[in-house]
Amino acid sequence: MSFMQINDLKVHYPVRGGFFNTVIDQVLAVDGISMEFERGKAYGLVGESGCGKSTTGKALIGLEKITNGSIIYEGENVTNKRRSRKSSFNRDVQMIFQDAHSSLNPRKRVKDIIAEPIRNFLSLTPKEEERKISELLEIVGMPEDAKFKYPHEFSGGQKQRLGIARAIATNPKLIIADEPVSALDLSVQAQVLNFMKDIQNEFGLSYLFISHDLGVVKHMCDHISIMYKGRFVETGSKEDIYTNPQHIYTKRLLSAIPEVSPVGREERKRERIRVEQHYQAEHKNYFDENERVFDLLPVSNTHYVAATSQVKEVL
Ligand SMILES: Nc1ncnc2c1ncn2[C@@H]1O[C@H](COP(=O)(O)OP(=O)(O)OP(=O)(O)O)[C@@H](O)[C@H]1O
């Protein structure tokens, strides 16, 4: 049973120009996506740079204006309430940003950074607040004295842990994690990802994991949506996407995942060339004249794939 639904979400940015600086065009950053979130599940949003992933995340928490569509949270339409401090949605949906450094206020001590959502959403006495901050630091594996330090005194991985401590301070139901590890070293990436998995299990958290890295998403997510130019190309369970991809764009993305092992390297290269040739040959059947994909059609209860031009004509 889902606790949150996004219906036909659109975020369009006006492009201004000409002598009178009028609107001459629009960037269809997010162009009609729908998703549902269940408790304790991790959802992946994958696609190449500029496809609309971050805009989706920011629109959900109210940092971008929604052009069209709705967000239903626990049965209530919260599309226009996302900035209200009183809304439980704001307490229950938190975000972790890619750049941990710039998402932490450099002039504030860690205790004040973590206390921010606590003061906004929980009514705690100063003593309770102090205890809560110590608890959160312990959960993210940081020493007690970290609370008196400033963000610049920590490494990238530690800063990301502080960002996570702030995000989980209000006991949220959903955390939107926008490329949370892409700025970190590979070894620290694994540490932070494993830690995020641990707290997911412990607190029954749901994640919307935004990434261009299909390897990371495979490790973290139960359900994956592949995005291209603001629309979903394919959406389904991890198994659907990785073992039975249907859209030529998904197949192309999967064939491009780098593999370290030298075993089967030549075979993988031949497969990549084959997928690319198929992609080029079939392109016009899968994308319209503006490079947009057609509407999603169900393949099964959980697996949806953008139609081809032929199927669209039949419909
Ligand atoms: N404020 C804005 N005004 C106009 N266009 C914007 C604005 N913000 C984003 N865009 C455009 O919207 C599209 C989607 O951007 P978005 O940042 O969501 O992509 P992304 O998939 O997150 O990319 P990346 O992986 O590089 O972060 C891009 O074409 C981008 O240029």
From TrEMBL:
This is Peptide/nickel transport system ATP-binding protein. It comes from the Bacteria. CDD domains: ABC_NikE_OppD_transporters (cd03257). Residues 4-254 form the ABC transporter domain. SMART domains: AAA. It comes from Ureibacillus chungkukjangi. The keyword Repeat does not apply. Signal peptide: none annotated. It holds the Pfam family ABC_tran.
